[in-house]
Structure formats: C-alpha cells, structure tokens
Predict the structure.
Amino acid sequence: MPDDAVNTEGIPADEERIVPMRLQRFLARAGVASRRGSENLMTAGRVTVNDVVVTELGSKVDPLVDVVCVDGRRVSLDGDKAYLILNKPRGYVTTMSDPQGRPCVASLVPTRRYPGLFPVGRLDVDTTGLLLFTTDGDMAQLLLHPRHHVWKHYVALVRGVPTDSQLDRLRNGIRLDDGPAAPAKVSLLDPLDLRAVPVIPEGMPYGHAVVGLSIREGRKHQVKRMLAAIRHECVRLHRDEFGPVKLTGVEPGCWRELTLAERDSLRKVLT
C-alpha cells in the first residue's frame, strides 16, 4: 500500500506500524485525556472495545480494526488536535470536574467544541496565569516528561526583599524536603514594569518584592517551596510563560488558540 494511502476508517495507512497498542495510549493519542486520565476512565468502566467494557490497563487494541468508545461515544486517531492557553484566575482548581463542587477550569474552556480537552500540568487554586490545554495526549506527555525540561516562568510577590546570596541558592539548586531542586533562573523584577501582572496589588505592599523565577521541573507547590526555603513567603504567584509560549493578549478567565508558529515552537523544544 502506498505511503499516502488511507484505509476505509479514515486512518493513514502508516498507522499500521503502531498496532497493536495499549488502550490507554490509544485514548491519549486520540485526545480523550492524558495517559493517567485515560487509565482512570478505563478503571471506572467508561471505556468499551467492540461493545465490551475494558478495565484492564494492559489491554491492547488495533486502531484499524477495533471500535473504541468512551461513555458510548466512538473515538479514533483521526481529526485535528486542539491547542489553547487559558489565563487562569484565582479560585479555580485545575481539574475538568470536581466532586467537591469547587469552580474548575473546565468551565472556562470550550470543552463542547473540543471534546477531550484537558490541561497540561496544574496550577494551584490560588495561582494565576498561563495554563496550556490540548487534546493531544502524546504532546502533553512529552511536555511534562523530565527529560525535556521545558522552562516555565513565574512572577511571585514575596514578603521581604531577597538578597543576592539568597537568590544564588535558588540559582545553584536548593534542597527541598523531597530532594534537591534543579538550578533556576531568578531575578528581582521592577513592580513598575509589571503593573498588569495579577501578583501586583493596587499598591505595592511595604516590605515586599517581586521575583521572576524560571524552572524546568513541575513538582507540587515547587515555586512556593523554593521561595519558602530562602525564608521569603510567596504571597501571590502568576505564570506567564510555558516554554516558548507567552501569555499575551488573554484577559483573566479567557482563552485563545495557539498560533501555528506557537505550535511549531512547542514541537521544537521536544526534539
């Protein structure tokens, strides 16, 4: 069969080289959820293969033959992937649903237009800024994988003014309670240049400073813990960059699709 051939299901013929594949990998590649999220869907009994509920995580499927459904809706590997950024406000949890009834980011993004949309990583409930969403499970996994070390930039309002020696501890890689943190890029920022950033209240509080910090990891509360380790409590935190993508032209609570150039730049950091 020629390289550009397409089978009757609309799947390129070169997909034959990837079968059989694990069901959770198939679901992630189809944009249903992340790999971990796909596993949760399976164990919850929401996934069927050829009308049979499949909960075993080691199960494999042939995308060219098997009919895979989630909640009764068929999913496949064809179709365009969605990539967008949300300017997350304070008070929203980074989940697509919340059993406790708290506001979640799913209500702020176009889930009906893009079924299977999910966030890449997390921001704390009180952290604002750039949250990347996609239906591309493979790219999401790569962006979060430690071997790619994608830089993420944060702006933090802290109590007190850090000294150069304290900032050097972050630059050199400070030890946290769960192990050493990788060296970060850190600098003091001028609040007058950041008046539009949500970490700056109406008036700059006395005895506070604004710190710009870039990290290549994604551990829980990592930026806050790093600043606490140099004895400067993080009062407010905002993320304005994820790799080459910047939070520009997006008001709090709003989203926009990535441009083609931004999509290409994300792929380049993964190569």
